[in-house]
Specification:
six-stranded mixed beta sheet, Alpha-Beta Plaits
Length: 609
């Protein structure tokens, strides 16, 4: 058709090649074609549409025509095919309003608000234009009698560009949503990847819809990723599923060479089909943004990416500083555990000062390694140090498992605090005994020449304690201070005299559940060195081996009477009751200790001769 021909002369007249709007030759394949679904029950309409749109190229992407001759056939195509940009829809097909029903189905049931719908009808009276546009969310309305080849081309061109812009907006919205979602926890590794991915989606949408972009770590530590192999941290398009993969294998050698050059020179590098922007921060880690393009970037597009890379550099440096801060806090917590600060209700350690303290009721546990001096003499200094650390590594998890926290390490022993129930401290002590047995078995197995088998004594007491910071301005320490701490230390020392693994005070015993209390036995009232008031002692034998547990259980009832006599100061009566019990259990060191204690008290009561 000549440039001045009347468009109404003939249905679907064809323009000369020189007058064809928006058509362009393609040197190389670019993105996927624009998909246009033609729905009409007249085969001639499909044929003429194919002829009219055969050479149309929009944004360097050709047109791919899909055909359906009924509403049912169109539904099947729409459900199984993604990214349909335009539907050219007839009204009257298998029924008078089949096309209108399909349009409503697309919007409401399929939920596709992006696809453009152009209604073509040969019977305008069956579908009044204004009502149809309002009621069915139709984007354009054309009578077949007025739709020349040129008019069809411009209609398709306008609809696809509208679809393109809507896709850009939708991609921007998705990218912004990912950025917003990631912002709350931006410094988490996963969230930061989401943050970068969201920005890449926005950039890809702004530059060219459906362009592939990736953010690649070139070298250095980033997000905990080590090694010398550059990896993709975030990507869109064909790189979206490649996060975590090695980047060089996804690019041609010349493209990867450009990536390394851009990073080394810290200058953007533009090629006809891609652009690369390098960025480094603190000379510790380097990364790059790689963007595939169908043509060289415009100055505005290049500026946009440069701004992104600049901001990404700042964000990455902030991330590095944040990770450094977390590492310092983690190191600090190894010296002053957060559990201890929580016990003292110190929320911000930077605001803490000398003398900050709080009083609360806790159970205190002292544990000490028996015969450590002899064991240290048998080992070199280095081996002794390694042995002690291995020992603590074996028993401390039991403390944490029951809600306790180590207050301090004291050579071959430790002090732990339990803010919960006293039974928590006892259960932790029993687990520590079991862990020590396993540790001893491994130690002896590894050192068959060692004559010393590691064993611990544990003392447990409960009472009020002052928790806080002590020291001088340049050296602070967090600790618990109270008379109860000293009592617990003395109870632990008595485990040697009674040859018992676990001794507890009455303050602990009276608050034990029945199943734990059933495996305890009283050892009487003992005067603690340095204390005016005596302490009622009980042994917990639930952690002893089976034979020893049975023997101690046999002494439980008789010891109730014996300790009652001791409590009343009837020393000879206590000794008389102990005699048959000692004869029945000659290896029970606790009975011998009680007998000696009674004899000593008798001597004191009689006075000098």
């Amino acid at each position: 058709m000549a440039g001045g021909a009347d468009e109404s002369d003939e249905l679907l007249l064809f323009a000369d090649e020189g007058d064809e709007p928006a058509a362009a030759a393609r040197d190389e394949p670019g993105d996927a074609p624009w998909r246009v679904l033609v729905i009409d029950d007249e085969p001639e309409v499909h044929a003429i549409t194919r002829l009219a749109l055969a050479d149309l190229v929009i944004d360097e992407r050709p047109i791919e025509l899909l055909a359906a001759q009924s509403g049912a056939e169109a539904r099947a195509i729409l459900e199984s095919t993604e990214d349909i940009a335009l539907v050219l829809l007839d009204v009257v097909m298998e029924s008078e309003h089949a096309g209108l029903g399909l349009a409503r189905w697309i919007r409401e049931e399929l939920g596709d608000r992006l696809v453009r719908i152009v209604l073509r009808t040969g019977q305008p009276g069956t579908a009044p234009e204004q009502r149809v546009m309002l009621d069915y969310d139709i984007n354009d309305y054309r009578a077949k009698t007025e739709l020349t080849a040129q008019r069809l081309t411009t209609t398709v061109l306008g609809a696809i560009r509208s679809y393109r812009d809507l896709c850009v907006i939708d991609s921007q919205k998705q990218g912004l949503q990912r950025v917003v979602d990631a912002s709350a926890t931006l410094f988490d590794r996963t969230s930061f990847e989401e943050f970068l991915g969201g920005i890449l989606i926005q950039i890809g949408a702004l530059l060219r819809p459906r362009r592939s972009t990736m953010f690649v770590q070139a070298h250095g530590p980033l997000f905990g990723i080590g090694g010398d192999v550059p990896r993709i941290i975030a990507g869109t398009g064909r790189f979206a599923g490649a996060v975590g993969e090695a980047a060089p294998g996804l690019l041609p050698p010349e493209a990867w060479s450009d990536v390394t050059t851009a990073i080394r020179n810290q200058q953007p590098l533009h090629r006809p089909r891609y652009s690369v922007f390098g960025l480094c921060y603190r000379e510790r880690s380097c990364a790059a943004v790689f963007v595939e393009t169908s043509a060289p970037l415009s100055s505005w597009e290049s500026h946009l990416l440069e701004v992104f890379c600049h901001n990404a550099t700042i964000a990455l440096d902030n991330l590095r500083l944040h990770h450094r801060q977390l590492a310092l806090l983690a190191a600090f917590e190894r010296f002053v555990p957060k559990r201890l600060l929580n016990l003292a209700e110190i929320d911000d350690v930077t605001d803490a000062s000398i003398g900050d303290h709080i009083q609360r009721e806790v159970a205190v546990v002292f544990a000490d390694l028996r015969s450590f001096t002899r064991l240290a003499e048998a080992l070199s200094p280095g081996d002794t140090f390694a042995f002690v650390n291995s020992f603590f590594a074996a028993i401390v998890p039991a403390i944490h498992a029951h809600g306790g926290v180590v207050d301090k390490y004291m050579g071959d022993g430790l002090m732990a605090l339990f803010p919960g129930e006293p039974a928590d401290a006892v259960r932790a002590a029993l687990d520590m005994l079991e862990a020590t047995r396993r540790f001893a078995a491994e130690h002896v197995a590894g050192r068959p020449e060692s004559p010393i088998v590691p064993r611990i004594g544990v003392g447990v007491h409960a009472g009020p304690i002052i928790l806080g910071l002590v020291g001088a301005a340049d050296r602070l320490d967090f600790t618990g201070i109270s008379d109860g701490v000293n009592v617990t230390a003395r109870i632990e020392r008595l485990t040697r005299s009674f040859d018992a693994d676990l001794l507890i005070s009455e303050a602990i015993h009276d608050r034990l559940p029945p199943e734990l209390e059933a495996e305890t036995r009283p050892l009487g009232r003992m005067v603690i060195r340095g204390k005016d008031r005596a302490v009622e002692l009980h042994e917990v034998f639930a952690g002893d081996l089976a034979a020893r547990r049975a023997a101690k259980a046999d002494t439980r009832a008789p010891l109730l009477a014996i300790t009652a006599a001791i409590r009343a100061g009837r020393w000879q009566e206590a000794r008389d009751l102990l005699e048959p019990l000692r004869a029945r259990h000659p290896d029970d060191a606790a009975l011998l200790t009680l007998d000696r204690h009674c004899w000593h008290q008798l001597v004191l009561d009689q006075g000098p001769l």
